[in-house]
Structures are given as C-alpha cells and as structure tokens.
Design brief:
There is one protein chain. The protein has 16 helices and two strands. It is globular and about 55 Å long. It is 76% helix and 1% strand. A two-stranded antiparallel ribbon has the order 1-2. It has 420 residues and is mainly α. It has helices at 24-35, 37-43, 49-56, 63-86, 89-107, 112-140, 143-157, 159-174, 178-198, 213-224, 227-257, 262-286, 292-315, 321-347, 354-379, 385-409; strands at 7-8, 22-23.
Length: 420
C-alpha cells in the first residue's frame, strides 16, 4: 500500500512532512499509545465507580472524574509552553514518570480525599501525552494532512475506550478496584519506554521559544484572539463537555439505574467506543471528497438530533436501557467526525506555537469537562435526565458556536480542503 511508503521527520515551517527518517505507521502507533493516556485512565475505572463510592461511603465519587479533568486542563497549559521551549520528548518523559507514581498512589488511597489528590496528579502526568501528540503532528504535517493523521491516531487510541472498561470489569471479578490503578501504572511505564527508545524529537532547536510568565500570557492571549482558533475551539470544547458528561454519568446510569453489571457495562461502553473509532476512519476517507468544515457541520447537526431525541424520550418516561444506549451510541460515534476536524482547524494558523495552541485547545475542553462533571456530582441524581439534558445542551451550543464564529472568521481564513 502507498501509505506504508510515507515517512516522517522534523521539519521547518513551510516545509512539513519531509520524508527522511522512517515509515509513518510506527510514529502513529507510538503517538496513538500516548494519546490513550486520557481515555485509558478515565475508562478503566468507570465500572468500579459504584464500588468505590460504597467503600468510601460518599455520593460525590464523580468528583474523582471532575477534578481529574481539572488536572488535565492545568497540565496541558503547563506542558504546552514548556514543550515549545525544551522540545517534546523531555516533557513526555517527565509526565510519564509522574503518571506512574500517581497511579501507584491511587491504588493505595484510603479515602476520597487522597484518591482525588492522586487523581489530580495522575491527570497532570497523563495530560502530557494528550497535548504533545497533537503538537508533534503539527510539527511534522501540514494542516490539510493533519486532519487525516488525527483520524488515524483515533484508530490507535480508540482501542483504549474499547478495552479499558472491559478490562476494568474483568479485574473486578477477581480482584480489588485498586489493581486497576496498578495496571495503569504499568501502562505508564510502557509509555515511558516508548518515548525513551522509540520517539525522535520533532521540534528543531531553532524553532524553540523562550518561556516566561509574561510570554506565556501573551502567547495564550494571542491565540485566543484568533477568530479561526475560536471558530473551532469553542465547538470542540462544548462537544467535550457533552462527551465528559457521558464519561462521568454513564457507569452510574447503566449500573445503578438500569441494573447492568460492571462487566456488561464494559461491553456497552466498548461498543460505543468502536462506533467512535469507526466514524473517525470514515472521516479520513470523506476528507478526500468533502471540506472538513462541511463534515464538521453535518456531524454536529447529527449529534444534536440524537441528543435532543434522547432528552425527549427521557422526559416522556420512555427511556429504556436499550433506547438510551442506542441514542448515546449515535452521540458518541458522531464525535469521531468532530474532534479530528476541529483539532486540525484550530491548529492551522499556529505552526510556530503548536505546543501552546494544542495545550490551550485541550485545556478549554478539560475545563468544560470539569464544570460538567462537578455539576453532575452535586446533582447525584438517580435518573437519566441530568446526563441527557447536559449532553443535549452541550451539543446544541457547539453547533451554534460553530455557526457564529465560523461566519465571522471566513473572511480571514480559507477552508482546509476544497471539494475534489
């Protein structure tokens, strides 16, 4: 296949994607594994949430997710500028080491407070993989091709949400929930070794930027003032709020409301993840024929229809487990069209600040996820309604923001891809 002939290397601005180092698929496998930090860390312990809540006698167990998202946002804001100064590899090694230690701390936590603390530290470690994989792609590939690369990354990282809840559920059959975090520590060690021995530095020394607090503030302000960035970052962040709502509430909804076993919940969650990954690969093919903006708008309309339908069915009292799962499947699968295209669009204008831009984009999504998770934890409702209402609201606002900001940014930017 022609794809196997493609190679990658570090490159200067204006000349990305130079073929001088090696085949592209090893790079995608490594970056996909690093990208899996977030979904694996979130999804593997979801089947254990009701068990942990009972062990610690707390109704606020969702705070372990909500404050994890807060740690993600802080970590991304820190690693972005640091990676623009010191390169991508050293921060990846530091973050992986922190992740290993924090995962062990989670395994030995004896209270909700200590678990939350180590979850925040775990998030600070895992965020490095989420932000710097995006930066590395932007270092090496033009915006037009990066949307396709992001879709390929979603194929690799998509195995995490497929397998993580299944593995977590099976662990609970034979061992304590604490073993889940020891398995995550082992995954962190794998990532550390992959970065140390398998990943080349992608940011040339002459392209690195000095870092101080004032420069960081100016950099982030400049990115936020860019209308093209906002046109894609706002829909991406609002979609993340809906997606994180699903992550925070789904295990409690299916296990506590619909009386699904933790093991069967793993299958439900995994099927939704398969839908997301499959759609991401369809997106990569559709980019040969349609503009990314056209795909993005159609996908947002689709997830709005699915989420509003779910809300309507819940309000009508007709929400069975099967109907809820089916509509959630369409909502979650639809994000496979949204994330690659919003990411590529938001990163397009910032080849010289890819680390900071990726960090800000990820942090915005994590902040909205934190807010959604905290709201859910304080509602601690035993119905499907809070989840359905928040997902529908998030997707509606994402579509509205795309329309508003994309219209105003069209004069200053061009589409990523013309219809072929």
């Amino acid at each position: 296949m022609r794809q196997k002939q493609r190679k990658y290397s570090v490159s200067a601005p204006g000349s990305p994607d130079q073929a001088v180092v090696g085949p592209i698929w090893p790079l995608i496998l490594i970056l996909g594994t690093l990208s899996a930090y977030g979904p694996l860390t979130i999804d593997m312990y979801l089947p254990a949430l009701p068990i942990i809540a009972k062990e610690f006698s707390t109704p606020y167990i969702q705070q372990t997710l909500a404050l994890y998202f807060l740690g993600l946002s802080l970590g991304q804001l820190i690693y972005g500028p640091l990676s623009d100064r010191f390169g991508r590899k050293r921060p990846l090694l530091f973050g992986s080491a922190l992740y290993i230690l924090a995962s062990v701390g989670c395994a030995f936590s004896n209270s909700l407070g200590s678990l939350i603390l180590f979850r925040i530290l775990q998030a600070l470690g895992s965020s490095v993989g989420m932000v710097l994989t995006v930066s590395i792609v932007r270092d090496l590939f033009e915006p037009e091709r990066s949307a396709r690369i992001f879709s390929y990354l979603m194929l690799v990282m998509g195995f995490a949400p497929m397998l993580a809840p299944l593995l977590g559920g099976q662990i609970l059959l034979v061992a304590s929930w604490r073993i889940i975090f020891l398995v995550l520590a082992a995954f962190g060690l794998l990532c550390f070794l992959l970065v140390l021995f398998g990943l080349r530095e992608s940011l040339l020394t002459e392209r690195r930027r000095r870092v101080n607090i004032q420069n960081v503030f100016v950099t982030y302000t400049g990115i936020l003032m860019d209308r093209r960035f906002l046109a894609y970052a706002l829909p991406s962040s609002l979609m993340s709020a809906g997606f994180f709502t699903y992550l925070s509430a789904s295990s409690l909804v299916f296990i506590d409301v619909f009386s699904v076993s933790p093991q069967n919940f793993g299958w439900i969650f995994g099927l939704n993840a398969i839908g997301l990954v499959t759609v991401a690969q369809v997106n990569a093919r559709l980019l040969d024929w349609f503009r990314s903006d056209a795909i993005l708008k159609a996908a947002l309309i689709g997830v709005v229809i699915a989420s509003v339908s779910l809300l309507g069915i819940v309000l009508a009292g007709l929400a069975t487990m099967q109907v809820t799962w089916l509509l959630l499947f369409f909502c979650i699968a639809g994000t496979g069209f949204i994330r690659p295209n919003t990411t590529a669009g938001a990163m397009a204008n910032f080849a010289d600040r890819a680390g900071s831009t990726s960090a800000l984009l990820g942090a915005l999504g994590s902040v909205t996820g934190t807010l959604a998770g905290m709201l859910l934890s304080y509602l601690h409702s035993t119905s499907v309604l809070p989840m359905a209402a928040m997902i529908a609201s998030s997707f509606i606002l994402a579509l509205v923001s795309l329309q508003l900001f994309k219209t105003t940014s069209n004069q200053a930017s061009t589409d990523l891809k013309e219809v072929r």
